[in-house]
Design a protein that fits this description.
Layout lengths: L3 H13 L15 H17 L1 E14 L2 E14 L4 E8 L2 E8 L2 E5 L7 E5 L11 H10 L3 E9 L2 E8 L3 H8 L13 E11 L4 E12 L2 E12 L17 E2 L7
Parallel strand pairs: 6-12
Antiparallel strand pairs: 1-2, 1-11, 2-3, 3-4, 4-5, 5-6, 7-8, 8-9, 9-10, 10-11
Helix pairs in contact: 1-4, 2-3
């Protein structure tokens, strides 16, 4: 099986754990109810100060008779007031920690190497777009959105909106943390983003689905994230790598 498709989608999943979209020709205009819900969510997050998130994702790829599925999980804290984000992520059974402190991102290197990869993020973007929920909202803000009814999520009745961003939009999300060139946009067939929003404007869940097909191979990815604890105190430990523990060009072997 060609590794390019699953690896490209893993790059996108990592970037989302966060883009312009150009609606397809003939796409119907946004639903006014959905636009109002999107605005409610954006306003709520802008004043929330902090939140926690828990992510569950998978990437399934197939090439002829060969197939593979990789699970992705993460949990983290976001302080919008202090501009700090901490995530513990597991991909394919391997766990790593990442931290965003202001516009500096730290990614823990996998064994046998110690230390952290250090990266400077785009300061021209709002800091919120470097956070999981901020990227979902940025994606929905640049595509048409539609009303998708109501559902109950963990006891909370939520309004559901959906958008269908272009491959260009998805590539823009990946570019937030590098690796955008790894995404084969010509093979991206479908991108769907759903957001569940409580009556008070509080986002409670987002789900992103991506389908890629190229050269006879195919891959499907789903990223589901729940959001909790808005406004509650959160704690994030920021690393301070120096010398041999600091990698400016990425972790060895990455």
């Amino acid at each position: 099986m060609r590794p390019a498709l699953p690896l490209a989608l893993l790059v996108v999943l990592a970037a989302l754990a966060g883009c312009g979209a150009v609606p397809g020709l003939g796409a119907p205009p946004s639903d006014e109810r959905a636009v109002a819900v999107r605005a409610d969510a954006s306003e709520y997050v802008a004043t929330a100060g902090s939140y926690r998130f828990k992510l569950d994702g998978r990437v399934s790829a197939a090439d002829g008779a060969a197939s593979r599925t990789v699970r992705v999980g993460a949990a983290g804290n976001v302080s919008l007031a202090r501009r700090v984000l901490g995530t513990n992520a597991t991909t394919g059974g391997r766990s790593r920690r990442s931290v965003v402190d202001g516009y500096t991102a730290y990614t823990e290197c996998a064994p046998p190497w110690d230390g952290w990869a250090v990266e400077t993020l785009d300061r021209e973007r709002s800091w919120r777009t470097h956070t999981p929920l901020g990227r979902q909202l940025a994606l929905l803000n640049r595509t048409n959105v539609y009303w998708n009814g109501t559902e109950t999520v963990d006891g909370t009745e939520a309004r559901v909106i959906v958008g269908y961003p272009s491959a260009r939009a998805l590539r823009g999300v990946a570019s937030e943390r590098g690796g955008a060139s790894d995404l084969p946009t010509s093979g991206v067939r479908n991108v769907t983003v759903r957001l569940w929003v409580a009556d008070d404007g509080r986002p409670v869940r987002s789900v992103v689905d991506v389908e890629v097909r190229a050269d006879g191979a195919s891959a499907n990815a789903r990223l589901a994230t729940d959001y909790r604890g808005f406004g509650a105190p959160v704690s994030v430990s920021v690393p301070n790598p120096t010398g041999d523990d600091r990698y400016e060009l990425g972790c060895p072997g990455s």
